[in-house]
């Protein structure tokens, strides 16, 4: 009996050892094993988190991150409310005032959104993540112009969170009903206008007309780059603006000519003429508009219409075809004690493949979540297939996303751009932003102001860029 008991104990002991060895072997190969990591807590702030009570994809993503990385606890830093200008209600605190208050207390969020890298750099709020990012194959798989937007002389001061595309949504049903060819991604602007002319009927007076194009007011920002591949958004070439150049002048003349064309340009009609022709001043929702200028954050709402829609971006010319995009950025705090964990969170919420696939899963399975509006930052077939599993009819949009030739709106990452585009004084009565509106509207003669305007705007860029590079200790 003693021998039998001893044998059974030996078997049980051996089984226990084998079981422990198997557990250890598995746990050393998975990132979700908390036992091999020191627990840390990091903080996160973003302007798209909604309320704690709401069903919000971003908050669900953070919860999923903590499941995937159980040794990392993420605490959301809520932006406080402050009295509005009237003192009768509350609004969200200004974003940079919110960050500044946290920074002064030494509690700057470890990961946070930024609407101005110039602000975060000049206030010492952000850190250089060049090394950690450039050693990450997934980061290096992002298109260079997007991933390096916030690279200042070899110092990477922000990471891409999302890109959104500007361009035209097309009501394909209108073209199908007219037995006409709908605009496609490859069309030049001339071809685009001709196709719109095939279906537009803006001159009726009984409300049954078909509108052509809504949204040409942004042309002076994106169209010059279709005339010269060396130019970017608003003629910015990576260093200076070319507001006195032939491309800007040609675009101005084209815009002013189109604004006289009441046969295809919805914007050229008065509200009274719009109401007479279409029975409404919102021709898109009534399926009476062929081409609607907007950007892709609203793409989820396009699934709610009962007509077929696609997105073609912006048409180019024989000289160039560059798609304007808006880039959202996030920073890793200069005050963080956990750079690696903060980077993993930022990656999960933005360009990381695992995180993006989780976004797809959550957005398609959780009730109350609107359709995902973020296209993948990596040109990865699996990610593209997952996104276009939601937007399967948007075949032209897939061409836009896969294209890899973009111009980036400079607002968030080009030092001095806000001043150069809007806020710098042109003279004692007029800012450059007001001058832009006056020139575009034909109230001021472009030839009279173009040289001084260009010089003043470029001086604003140069002063700001020099200050940022000096702050970073980078040679200008």
Structure overview:
By secondary structure, the protein is of the alpha/beta class. The chain has a domain at 34-162 and 327-388: 3-Layer(aba) Sandwich (D-Maltodextrin-Binding Protein, domain 2). Helices cover 41% and strands 14% of the residues. The chain has helices spanning 2-27, 57-68, 95-104, 117-122, 130-134, 137-140, 144-147, 172-177, 189-199, 219-222, 224-227, 246-258, 271-278, 339-349, 353-365, 381-390, 395-401, 417-423, 432-440, 446-472; strands at 40-45, 72-76, 81-83, 90-92, 111-114, 151-152, 155-156, 159-171, 211-214, 289-295, 309-311, 323-332, 406-408. The strands form 3 sheets. Strands 1, 2, 5, 8, 9, 10, 11, 12 and 13 form a 9-stranded mixed sheet that branches. Strand 6 and strand 7 form a beta hairpin. The longest helix is centred in the C-terminal third of the chain and has 27 residues, at 446-472. The chain starts with a helix and ends with a helix.
């Amino acid at each position: 009996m003693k021998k039998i008991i001893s044998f059974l104990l030996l078997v049980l002991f051996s089984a226990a050892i084998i079981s422990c060895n198997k557990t250890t072997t598995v746990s050393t190969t998975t990132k979700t094993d908390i036992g091999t990591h020191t627990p840390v807590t990091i903080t996160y702030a973003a302007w798209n988190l909604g309320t704690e009570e709401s069903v919000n994809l971003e908050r669900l993503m953070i919860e999923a991150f903590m499941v995937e990385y159980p040794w990392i606890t993420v605490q959301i830093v809520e932006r406080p409310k402050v009295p509005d200008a009237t003192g009768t209600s509350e609004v969200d605190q200004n974003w940079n005032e919110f960050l500044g208050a946290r920074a002064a207390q030494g509690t700057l969020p470890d990961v946070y959104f930024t609407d101005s890298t110039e602000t975060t750099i000049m206030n010492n709020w952000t850190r250089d993540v060049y090394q950690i990012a450039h050693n990450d194959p997934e980061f290096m798989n992002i298109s260079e112009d997007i991933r390096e937007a916030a690279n200042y002389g070899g110092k990477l001061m922000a990471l891409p969170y999302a890109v959104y595309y500007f361009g035209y949504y097309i009501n394909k049903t209108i073209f199908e009903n007219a037995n006409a060819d709908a605009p496609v991604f490859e069309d030049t602007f001339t071809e685009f206008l001709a196709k719109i002319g095939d279906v537009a009927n803006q001159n009726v007076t009984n409300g049954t007309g078909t509108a052509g194009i809504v949204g040409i007011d942004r042309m002076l920002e994106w169209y010059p780059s279709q005339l010269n591949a060396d130019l970017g958004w608003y003629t910015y070439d990576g260093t200076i603006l070319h507001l006195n150049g032939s491309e800007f002048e040609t675009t101005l003349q084209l815009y002013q000519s189109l604004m006289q064309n009441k046969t295809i340009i919805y914007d050229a009609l008065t509200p009274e003429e719009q109401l007479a022709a279409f029975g409404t001043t919102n021709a898109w929702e009534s399926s009476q508009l062929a081409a609607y200028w907007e950007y892709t954050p609203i793409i989820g709402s396009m699934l709610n219409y009962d007509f077929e829609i696609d997105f073609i971006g912006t048409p180019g010319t024989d000289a160039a075809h560059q798609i304007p995009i808006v880039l959202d950025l996030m920073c890793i705090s200069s005050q963080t004690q956990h750079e690696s964990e903060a980077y993993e969170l930022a990656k999960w919420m933005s360009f990381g493949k695992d995180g993006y696939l989780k976004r797809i899963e959550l957005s398609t399975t959780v009730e109350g979540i609107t359709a995902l509006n973020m296209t993948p930052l990596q040109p990865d077939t699996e990610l593209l297939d997952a996104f276009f599993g939601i937007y399967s009819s948007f075949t032209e949009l897939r061409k836009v996303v896969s294209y890899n030739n973009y111009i980036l709106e400079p607002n968030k990452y080009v030092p001095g751009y806000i001043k150069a585009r809007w806020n710098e004084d042109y003279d004692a009565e007029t800012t450059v932003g007001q001058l832009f509106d006056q020139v575009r509207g034909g109230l001021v003669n472009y030839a009279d102001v173009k040289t001084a305007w260009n010089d003043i705007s470029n001086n604003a860029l140069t002063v700001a860029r020099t200050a940022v590079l000096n702050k970073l200790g980078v040679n200008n």
